[in-house]
Amino acid sequence: MSDEPSQSQQQAELEGWLQWLGDLRNTAAALLRLASAELQLAAGDLRRFLVLSLLVLPVGFLAWLGLALFLCWLVYTASGSMGAAFAGFFMLHFIILLVIQRLLVRYRKSMSLPATRGYLADIVEEFKRAPQRTDTADSDA
User: Fold this and answer.
1) DSSP secondary structure, 36-105, as one string
2) Nearest partner of 67 among 41, 35, 89, 44, judged by Cα
3) Are 112 and 50 in contact (CB under 8 A)?
4) I need a labelling partner for 89 at 20 to 30 A (CA). Which of 2, 11, 48, 127 fits?
5) Distance between CA atoms of 48 and 50, rounded to whole angstroms?
6) How far is it, in rounded angstroms, from Cα 69 to Cα 84?
7) Cβ pair 130, 20 in contact under 8 A
């Protein structure tokens, strides 16, 4: 009769571990689905990121050209009003650069897979809370 309680304890512990392994399998499958979906989204953002990165050079060059023209025409403004036109040309391109920079920051953040990282951190936290042995409470008493 003394074998029955220990055998039922072992059965309960085995069932606990099997349940935990089943949860681990489900969690790993969900993590893989999430990572796959997020990688597909990041691939779309990567194309946008590359296009915007390619746009930085010509727009930056035009902004520099506009600034150079603006500074050159400041001298000329003492005798005419062309400076306002060149300042507007420069400001237009400068604003475009700011918009492109903000978009690059946004796409870079989404390509870092934030949801997958968070989910993985949750999984690691769950591993730290693995099922406790049921016979430890009985041995203390």
Assistant:
1) HHHHHHHHHHHHHHHHHHHHHHHHHHHHHHHHHHHHHHHHHTTT-SHHHHHHHHHHHHHHHHHHHHHHHH
2) 89
3) no
4) 48
5) 5
6) 11
7) yes
**pTM exceeds cut of 0.85:** no
Enter the tokens of residue 102. 């903000």
Q: What is the pLDDT of residues 70-122, one digit of tens each?
A: 656 765 675 666 766 666 667 777 888 899 999 999 998 888 888 888 888 88
The first and second tokens of residue 109, run together, are: 């953040």
- 116: tokens are 């997958």
Residues 59, 93 contacting (CB under 8 angstroms): yes
Amino acid at position 9, single letter:
Q
DSSP letter, residue 141: -
* Terminal CA-CA length for the chain: 20
